[in-house]
Design brief:
The complex is a heterodimer of chains A (231) and B (215). In chain A, 84% of the residues lie in helices and 0% in strands. With 231 residues, chain A is mainly alpha-helical. Chain A folds into 2 domains: 66 residues, no CATH class; 157 residues, no CATH class. The longest helix of chain A is centred in the middle third of the chain and has 25 residues. The radius of gyration of chain A is 19 Å and the shape is globular. With 215 residues, chain B is mainly α. Chain B folds into 2 domains: 118 residues, no CATH class; 42 residues. The longest helix of chain B has 29 residues. Classes of the chains: A mainly alpha (231), B mainly alpha (215). At the A-B interface, α2, α3, α4, α5 and α7 of A face α3, α5, α6, α7 and α8 of B.
């Protein structure tokens, strides 16, 4: 029996993804609240796929069905913004300045560090927009002439990093208000960070969702001079 | 499920009662359950599933199109289907005023599809889900969409949003060899710049926020 054949039935990808996530979330709620369910489930699935020699393409037949729901979930962020609007509006100027400043710092420091470490041009172009939500970053990477799938991988890794380390870093850096934490994580860790914040605090999640959306609109604008410089 | 003897005014009155109950306590489990049971015996479910299926299929179809031209053709094709779906959805919204989860999901999918449609038709450089989010948020503020129509399904999706990212993170494994090849540059570029911009965003926001004390 060919394992890959069975695995390329959509049911396989859906079942193992939901199963791994449910297990990770159960462990988080029950025993170990620092466990990041996304990180844990993904690492487990990568190990399973590697060990059983099932290709990612086969897995993703079902996997893409799971990630399809990211669309309606992103739309659903509207309810969070709506419900927490008074909080966002009171600090609108601070939040919007933070988003703009953070986006520029993110792009600039990526270019600086990659230049210092002498990375190849294709890695540089694929990584520049990594802090904005993946559908936007993929478009920007494509327009810059980088490798879009690699850009998507960097974006997901950046989001994962901000989601895993972001809350702790914010605490260490003395960032304590809900608006500042939400803005910081929404600007740099987009949807993955927002989803992490929503596990604990709806008001941080609301600001984060707002920041993610605002960054998605602002970032393509910031890249206009970069296109000019490349041409 | 419930009494087969539905006199004309019995159901509306019961619904009104449940309305009052739910208004007082939105999370009242028995009230929700009762409402669900009341509605389950009708045949609206098929109609809703149909609307969701139309929305979902359309999204898949258009996003799979290889080029912009075919995308445009299928986009205009879908104008017809979307019109049909819209009619159907309107019916769903009117008929099932109080169907919690499915109605919300249908609305969210409809906005996602609307975003995709606008993006394809006008080739806007903003992703479909962000366009959908902007329109949906605007509709909430303009009171075109009521929060309670979508709240239950929105909360369900948001509570488990991390799940939907799992296939993407698993997908990064295809790039492990390349990442390993220039590990140092990637670690510095990705990790340091992400943490730096995270801290910078937070500091500036907090500083501005505290400089002008909130009302």
């Amino acid at each position: 029996m060919n394992l890959n054949e069975l695995a390329s039935h959509p049911l396989f990808g859906i079942a193992v993804t939901v199963g791994a996530y449910a297990l990770a979330d159960y462990v988080r709620q029950r025993w170990w609240k620092w466990l990041h369910p996304l990180l844990a489930a993904s690492v487990a699935l990568i190990l399973i796929l590697q060990l059983s020699d099932i290709s990612y393409e086969a897995y993703n037949v079902g996997g893409s069905t799971v990630s399809f729901f990211l669309g309606p979930a992103t739309i659903a962020l509207g309810t969070v913004i709506y419900k927490n609007w008074p909080r966002v509006r009171r600090h609108a100027a601070a939040i919007l300045s933070g988003i703009a400043f953070g986006s520029v710092i993110g792009i600039g420091s990526t270019a600086l560090f990659l230049w210092l470490f002498d990375a190849s041009q294709e890695i540089l172009l694929s990584m520049l927009p990594k802090n904005v939500t993946s559908p936007v970053s993929i478009e920007i990477v494509y327009a810059l002439g980088g490798i879009p799938p690699l850009g998507a991988a960097f974006t997901v890794l950046a989001g994962l990093l901000g989601s895993v380390a972001g809350p702790a870093l914010a605490r260490l850096a003395g960032i304590r208000t809900d608006a500042a934490i939400g803005t910081a994580i929404g600007t740099t860790a987009h949807g993955i960070g927002t989803a992490r914040l929503l596990l604990d605090s709806e008001s941080q999640g609301a600001v984060s969702g707002f920041a993610m959306g605002a960054a998605a609109i602002m970032t393509p604008v910031f890249f206009i001079p970069v296109y000019g410089w490349l041409v | 499920m419930h009494s087969s003897n539905n006199s004309a005014d019995f159901l509306p009155r019961l619904h009104y009662l449940l309305d009052l109950l739910l208004e007082r306590n939105k999370n009242s489990y028995p009230a929700r359950e009762a409402r669900l049971l009341l509605l389950q015996s009708n045949n609206y479910r098929l109609c809703i599933i149909y609307a969701v299926a139309v929305g979902g299929e359309g999204t898949y179809f258009v996003s799979d199109c290889p080029s912009f031209n075919t995308g445009l053709i299928s986009g205009s094709l879908f104008l017809g289907v979307a019109g049909l779906g819209h009619l159907c959805l309107n019916q769903v919204i009117h008929v099932c005023e109080r169907r919690d989860l499915m109605r919300g999901l249908a609305i969210l999918l409809a906005f996602h599809f609307l975003g995709l449609f606008i993006q394809t038709a006008a080739s806007v450089p903003i992703p479909a889900n962000v366009i959908g989010l902007i329109l949906f948020t605007a509709c909430l503020f303009l009171k075109i969409i009521k929060l309670e129509w979508v709240e239950a399904s929105a909360q369900f999706l948001l509570r488990h949003m991390l799940l939907f990212f799992v296939p993407f993170v698993v997908g990064t494994m295809a790039f492990f060899p390349l990442i390993r090849h220039s590990l140092l540059a990637i670690v510095f570029g990705l990790v340091l710049s992400t943490l730096l911009s995270l801290a910078a965003t937070g500091w500036l926001t907090q500083w501005l926020e505290k400089r002008r004390p909130s009302a």
